[in-house]
Amino acid sequence: MATSATLAVLARRSLRLAPLLLGILAAELWRWLWRRWARRSLSRPLAIKETKGVHRRPGVDDDLRFQQIEDDPRDLPGAAIGKAQLGARGIPVSGGMNTVSLDPASTFVEPGLRCICSVESDVYSGTICPEDLVVAPDFFGNATDMQMYDKLLVEMQEMTAEKSESEQVMARIREYFRLDRESCTSCLTWHQQTGEPALTVKDPDFDATQGSGRFEAVAFAVFGGSCELRLQRPGNKRDYVAIPCINGALHLMGAAALARWRCERTTWDNWDNGLVSLIILGRPWGMSRRRLAAVPPNPVPLQINLADPLHRPAMRIRVTRQDVDRLSHDDVIVMPEFFGRANDWDAYYTLLREVREGQANGIDQTKWESWHEGAHLLTKNPSCSRAFNDVLDRICDHFSIANGHLRHSASREVLGMRFNWYRDGSDWKPFHHDAAAFNPRMAEKQNCTVGVSFGSSRELAFRNTASGDLLYFPQSNGMLFFFGRDVNIRWQHGLNALPLEQQSGKGRISIILWGLCQLAIEEMGSPPMLPPRDDGKGKGKGKTKDARREPGRNLQMGQRRFSSRPHGNG
Q: In CATH terms, are 114-313 and 346-521 the same topology?
């Protein structure tokens, strides 16, 4: 009897397992068929279609200032199809020694941190995602203006029941980020020297809220002195990302970013009068609908420690509207509205019109070229544009670029220039290093990359070559972006592709300058240059037969496809 019962139980279990086994078998069969199709696609020669319109368009720029001219070389009959264009069609393609992946879908990854520069003065109208860091430079006034610090310090020292000044500051922050007042809890500290604060005024539930992680974002500001927020991955004791916190600037960081990074506050300064710090925990009404990270956010410490000057960051993110008089090779500098207001696109359409006039006049090397395996367009000789020259003049003057005044006669190796056109939302830029990271001849004359964006807002992405961490920087119209020599070595950068549903006919121009910034200081502990790379700049125009016959360069170098791994370490 027992044997019959046992057999019956086994039979029932077998019946339940049968669908599971069939599902596993079907999945393995599907994977085998997919791999077989992929191998055949890679081994098949890339045919050049003799039809017009091989480059899919997501829309048309209907602005009256835009000239509707069919001058995209990717659309010409017989145009070569680059690997980036094939990747956009879902066809597996190889990368290169200086390119992680030519598949635009490989950029559809959530970052470890997205740094957004806010230019709005009254209310931040953008969507806030849990992985975002929003920075509003000079929110409470110029960095040299100490009036707010003096008022807050007097109020804290007198410990009056009427906290009018601090309440006004907190009310302004709540209004700017649309923080739910009922969920907000705050802490105000005064630091006379490094270490624990000399004076603390905080809400009764602040410690419990921060300890439990029951908040969706933290807003913080400092007054008087300055400090640096250091973000480190748990378990990584060396690499960190530094966020300078300057007098009068306002920051907001989402809970998912705080969950991924361990926070520390440090300073190199010997404050003359001290520093007042304000931290508010709350829930912004503009927070996106994405679910917050399962891991609770790490706390923002109240103490400010003395920094180790020899422990340099992997990247320091400086968001500012002020002039820069000294910088590090670790610096990324973001300057909003450097060349016009964010909502004024006149410069974008002027640049296009002037370059096209040069093309119509037959000026040498002004024609558009397909670049980086068809990912976007460029012109090799944009000097016919007066607006282009004006942008370079301002860059050279602002960052004291050596030989900037000789750029019309100097060698391209001394001063490199680039006019990239992302014609619409379907164009993008794969991850890569600029040539000075691995070319000694270039490195002697170029220690920085400076770019100014015009037109549609797109995300500039950085990928740490050691950890895989991803940092995104949305680039708005007129914004300047600078990064130093060591950032170029430690990180690859590119322009994220857009999903189909987010693409439009609006384009973007990126004016790039590579030169020798005389404001940069040398520090101990700089990373060595990367090994030389035979593919040079990795330009990959996708025009030659030899390039199409070339085997998988990333496989030769032992590199794996970026799309096969998640963002960073989490």
A: yes
